[in-house]
């Protein structure tokens, strides 16, 4: 799987939006399975986000970023990825804390926990493995793992630096990278027979301009 957890956009100005459209094309060219929304994307207006969704060549997820007028998600809440003999459920959320007045016009953000409680009940029967893309901080990633044992892998988030090591909390594996596209997290798992994922390798690889 190839995923981005959020904050790929640089800001809310017109040139940022133009650049983001090219970045989504790049994600698609690199065969990304999903791109989650972070705080910076949530600063765009509902109208801008609907336009981005209509033209996006890659799946964008955000279960709790809602159209204020309708109360419905603007983007897909989850995606089921098919692999040989395996169904992987991807769910994307963004932490409402810290947005405040920066939230884009026409948007509201639902509580992550209540959103996940409803979604996990819907997605769990459809997937053999649940992966949560959560744009939130390290403490909240751990708290989500405590609350939702059904999620085997949690990827973040709103962090200052990449994870120093792979974390285990409750029944979940937690891994995260910084949100400025300068680091790539690589996690290799062994999946078999409904057992918890076995970790084969994990690595944070720092990127450079070449």
In short:
This protein has 210 residues and is α/β, with parallel strands linked by helices. It is 23% helix and 30% strand. It is globular.
Strand order of the largest sheet: 5-6-8-9-11-10
User: What is the succession of H and E elements?
Assistant: EHEHEEEEEHEHEEEEE
Number of strands: 13
The CA-CA distance between the termini, in Å, is 23 Å
Mean pLDDT, all residues = 94
Q: How many strands, which pairing sense, and closed or not: the largest β-sheet? A: 6 strands, mixed
Shape: globular
Per DSSP, what share of the residues sits in E-state strands of 2 or more residues? Answer: 25-35%
Global Rg: 16 Å
Short key terms for the protein model shown above:
210 residues; 4 helices; 13 strands
Write the layout of secondary structure elements.
Blueprint lengths: L2 E2 L9 H16 L4 E3 L9 H10 L4 E2 L3 E3 L10 E6 L2 E9 L12 E3 L2 H12 L5 E7 L2 H10 L5 E4 L10 E3 L2 E5 L6 E8 L7 E9 L4
Parallel strand pairs: 1-2, 2-3, 6-8, 8-9, 9-11
Antiparallel strand pairs: 4-7, 5-6, 10-11, 12-13
Describe this structure in words.
The protein is α/β, with parallel strands linked by helices and 210 residues long. The protein has four helices and 13 strands. It has helices at residues 14-29, 46-55, 112-123, 138-147, and strands at 3-4, 34-36, 60-61, 65-67, 78-83, 86-94, 107-109, 129-135, 153-156, 167-169, 172-176, 183-190, 198-206. The radius of gyration is 16 Å and the shape is globular. The two termini are 23 Å apart. The relative contact order is 0.13.
